[in-house]
Design a protein that fits this description.
Organism: Novacetimonas hansenii
Distance between the termini: 35 Å
Shape: globular
Number of domains: 1
Strand order of the largest sheet: 5-4-1-6-7-9-8-10
Keywords: Methyltransferase, RNA-binding, rRNA processing, S-adenosyl-L-methionine, Transferase
Number of helices: 10
GO molecular function, one term: methyltransferase activity
Radius of gyration: 18 Å
GO biological process, one term: methylation
Helix content: 25-40%
Bound molecules: S-adenosylmethionine
Active site: 174
CATH superfamily: Vaccinia Virus protein VP39
CATH topology: Rossmann fold
Structural class: alpha/beta
Order of helices and strands: HEEHHHEHEHEHEHEHEEHE
Strand content: 15-25%
CATH architecture: 3-Layer(aba) Sandwich
């Protein structure tokens, strides 16, 4: 579907969770000197203006990034965000400062990853919406490390993996979930990505409205014999009303060694800032090694 526009939701609690975790994963890749490649299958526009009519009309970002901008940044303060969250916030503040006055720019996944690339690293983006793709292309017009494809991100998994740019890396999938079969498509894509790029980390974002579709999704992967699957979930309230986005989830296949510990610290901290008493976070091995 090309009807989905991320500008209405940019910077909301789910975006914050996905971007902090994405950044933590890329930070792990940066610990080794050999180059890495990130494939962002559903990249969006890269930068979102939170003062835009779309963003203001929902106001979702105020309960996402808005809450963290107000957080104390002193690391010794007990109320400060966890180091993994603070790393991301430092970039957010820089991007916001970079932009001209009057705009409130929030970096999406490709803009965030691009800032973390070292000279030999690379980022491949896919974005199907023609306008969003043009915006993204323009953003990276001077960046040799970033390529933008106006193609189906799921198709790209077969076409562009394994990456010829590097032997290690990350596949990040963040589909819009507008179609009834998105969970199924994501499950298939995760399996294909692992098959084509066994050394890679494969991460997929999913909405938590109701428990049942999430359970079915994880079971599809389990039943297909997938191993090493870690799930990260942040729910703002018990997921009972299926008309609401009650929580945000990320499944990571082949996560970095001991990433679950880092993920727990991050999610506990996000739960504190983004939740209102009923919030919970869970980091669990759906299937261990
Ligand atoms: N990952 C982005 C970020 O974190 O800033 C946000 C992505 S948004 C949730 C989903 C995006 O996928 C939209 O920009 C939409 O236009 C695009 N899209 C929808 N179907 C697609 C497909 N089959 N392949 C690639 N992009 C697609």
């Amino acid at each position: 579907s090309v009807n989905y526009r991320h500008s209405y939701h940019a910077g909301n609690f789910a975006d914050v969770m996905k971007h902090v975790v994405l950044m933590a994963l890329v930070e792990v890749l940066r610990r080794k000197p050999s180059p890495f490649c990130v494939l962002d299958t559903h990249a969006g526009t890269g930068l979102y203006d939170l003062s835009s009519i779309q963003a203001q009309s929902t106001g979702e970002w105020r309960d996402g990034i808005g809450r963290l901008l107000d957080a104390p940044s002193h690391p010794t303060s007990a109320a400060a965000p966890a180091p993994g969250v603070e790393n991301w916030l430092r970039i957010i503040r820089t991007v916001m400062r970079d932009e001209q006055a009057g705009r409130l720019s929030y970096p999406g996944s490709p803009a965030l990853v691009a800032r973390l690339l070292r000279p030999g690293d690379s980022l491949i983006c896919c974005e199907l919406h023609p306008e969003d793709q043009q915006t993204l292309r323009h953003l990276f017009r001077h960046d040799r490390h970033v390529s933008v494809h106006g193609r189906d991100g799921y198709e790209a998994i077969t076409a562009l993996l394994p990456p010829r740019q590097a032997k290690r890396g990350l596949v990040f999938m963040d589909p819009p979930f507008e179609r009834g079969d998105e969970f199924q498509r994501l499950a298939t894509a995760i399996m294909t990505a692992r098959q084509r790029f066994p050394a890679g980390i494969v991460a997929g974002w999913y909405p938590i409205k109701h428990r049942a579709p999430v359970r079915a999704f994880v079971n599809t992967l389990k039943d297909a014999g997938q191993r090493k699957l870690l799930t990260l979930e942040l729910t703002l309230r018990p997921p009972l009303d299926p008309s609401r986005l009650n929580g945000s989830g990320i499944i990571i296949a082949n996560p970095p060694f001991r990433f679950e510990e880092e993920a727990r610290t991050i999610l506990t901290s996000l739960c504190h800032f983004l939740g209102d008493g009923q919030a919970e976070s869970h980091v669990e091995w759906a299937v261990p090694e």
